[in-house]
Amino acid sequence: MSSLLEQITEIARAARQASRALAGVNSEVKNQTLKAMAEALNASGKVILAENAKDLEAGKKKGLSAAMLDRLTLNPDRIQAMAQGLSEVAALPDPVGEVTSMWPRPNGLLIGRVRIPLGVIGIIYEARPNVTVDAAGLCLKSGNAVILRGGSEAISSNLCLGKILAEVAGKQGLPRAAIQVISFTDREAVDHLLDQEEFIDLIIPRGGEELIRRVVLRSKIPVIKHYKGVCHVYVHADADLDKAYRISMNAKVQRPGVCNAMETLLVDQAIAPRFLPEMARRFQEAKVELRGCENSRELCPAMKPATEADWYAEYLDLILAVRVVDGLESAIAHIQKYGSDHTEAIVTENYSAARKFVQEVNSSSVMVNASTRFSDGFQYGLGAEIGISTTRLHAYGPMGLTELCTTKFVVYGDGQVREK
Amino acid sequence: MSSLLEQITEIARAARQASRALAGVNSEVKNQTLKAMAEALNASGKVILAENAKDLEAGKKKGLSAAMLDRLTLNPDRIQAMAQGLSEVAALPDPVGEVTSMWPRPNGLLIGRVRIPLGVIGIIYEARPNVTVDAAGLCLKSGNAVILRGGSEAISSNLCLGKILAEVAGKQGLPRAAIQVISFTDREAVDHLLDQEEFIDLIIPRGGEELIRRVVLRSKIPVIKHYKGVCHVYVHADADLDKAYRISMNAKVQRPGVCNAMETLLVDQAIAPRFLPEMARRFQEAKVELRGCENSRELCPAMKPATEADWYAEYLDLILAVRVVDGLESAIAHIQKYGSDHTEAIVTENYSAARKFVQEVNSSSVMVNASTRFSDGFQYGLGAEIGISTTRLHAYGPMGLTELCTTKFVVYGDGQVREK
Prior knowledge:
The structure is a homodimer.
Chain A (H helix, E strand, L loop, with lengths): L3 H19 L4 H17 L1 H18 L3 H7 L3 H16 L7 E6 L5 E8 L2 E6 L4 H12 L3 E5 L5 H17 L7 E3 L5 H7 L8 E5 L2 H10 L12 E5 L5 H13 L8 E7 L3 H14 L3 E4 L1 H6 L4 E2 L2 H5 L6 E7 L2 H11 L4 E5 L3 H10 L4 E6 L16 E3 L7 E3 L5 E12 L4
Helix pairs in contact in A: 1-8, 2-5, 2-7, 3-7, 5-6, 10-11
């Protein structure tokens, strides 16, 4: 029996080999495969639910929280939704082979850039089995081989889903190693995976901040990540009050547990007396706990006092930090100091303020008069989302299919040689 | 006195702060600064040459090779060339602020992607002082702060050049910390620099393979690199013989010491008897040592025998590995096995062969009927080159100004909030 390291290396090597074949597969074959995968999932409900039941039973024994168990649970509707997701990916345009630009040179050479897959992508994630299917679909469509390493809590579900997908790939003439789920639940298996820089091109961790930090610290392979989303809404002096109420409310309460929810509300001092008391009343009605700076609390004495730590906090809950700022410059300075480069919005009717905010705030998404909740690959019309990056290399913001690709240069000549 | 780590951290922190200011500087100011830098270099010839003389003297004492001393040497012509380079960068279009695409969504949101600088770039290089000026110019133009760490052999030259450039930046109202040259020559200083992932966004090592491997191994910051260029020319069965002779000769001998020179010539067996003996004769005339496979040596018995190691070799010299292959598939397989993802060319008049080669070879540059020596940012019309990447993340192939940038999303709304 070979060692764990050897087995993981073999998985990575097989993925590299599969990626070579996948890169040249045409859209029609990929789309047929995705649709066949969707059918196979729908046809395999019983098996999937049986394997999922094992995970749920083990999870209950381990004492997982109700929220964890919910994320882990599959049911016919959720299986149907995963299958539906694959069909939607099949319907998206294929990014591979697109000529993104092409230009002639004075010597007659024609130079172009053509999109190609990254190669092999490793996904490291936690308890949600749907990530197995979503990620496999997006990687396949973009011509990448994928290695999936989900949480130990979902191991039976993930292995079952991975097996169904790989079998379909094989039947459609694609390499089965295009989609591999790692069966080893030891943390060491992840460490070995993160050492395979020869065979894996990119690691995308999906999960909590702790998981992501662990992966970044350990990986020899480039990692695309976002640690947290400390998103801001800044209500400018010239805001339309109605828009400000609606956007602030939506950004905080429509789904507070996600990374594009607002965590800090910045209010211009010029509008604070008109805006903040009514806004606070609405938030309190919506059961949002408010933690305010001194100026906020003068206007709304019911707020708890905010501490320095609140400006850095990603609550992911019905809690909101509130700060009165003395103008646009201060709002931008606050965002630069405390923000996480995720998403920031200004609410204003003032053209110059909007322009300045959009130019000077270099978070991955910058918005005018819109809820931060729109920061999402589907909402942006990318058709899909494999994650959000808040670091600037390779991808910044929501990542769709094109972010799973790179471009190569192609050069069409007629015998040109270089003189000097 | 603070520790070396503290001092390096301070440099990195100052660069991050400078990068915030730089990101918003408009093109006019950046271009004026670049032109003023060019003038300052031309006006400071005496000082620069005096500092360079110190490096040369120390280098001679240390026993540096003649080639090393040559690379280290500045003279009025070379200073003029560096200044000229800055003026050329001033004339290039500014990548920052470009809206690369913008599209409406059904709910009325307008979504766009806007180019912004990466932030802070660290350049780690060897003995050529011109890199100090070239890299500083490209980083400034693309709105990035730069930290330069050249080899100890060039320390006096680099510090002098960096001081001149930073002073001009300061006079033009830009932060002086936009351009910083590290004065510490200990290798520890590099290690500390590679730990500053909070403040530095990208490391670009420029130099030999050993330097690059050391940087990659040590860095916590993303590194864009290419280890080596094992470039191939494949002479297809339907090649035009004259083009094949000219391209093969140019790719090998026009400048053998650079990464885009050909290292292995692949010859289709169908054309080998007509092509190879004459090509070998021309190469021998040009003093190129040939190392051939068995089939090559049957046609050209004067060739030395090639070993397995020759197929991996980057000679950077007048040496060439030659292999006869039994067709397009074998040529592609050889390139995939032994290549370095740098640049490969096919010589053919056959449309389908050209199409297949361009589609299936996923090196960073793939050429038809052109010399591999064109694989270069200037030759491609990028206007500049900060390096070549042979890994696929963020940039692949020659990197110009746009590769020193990323894009953020901007969202223009009218009060939109998210329903679900």
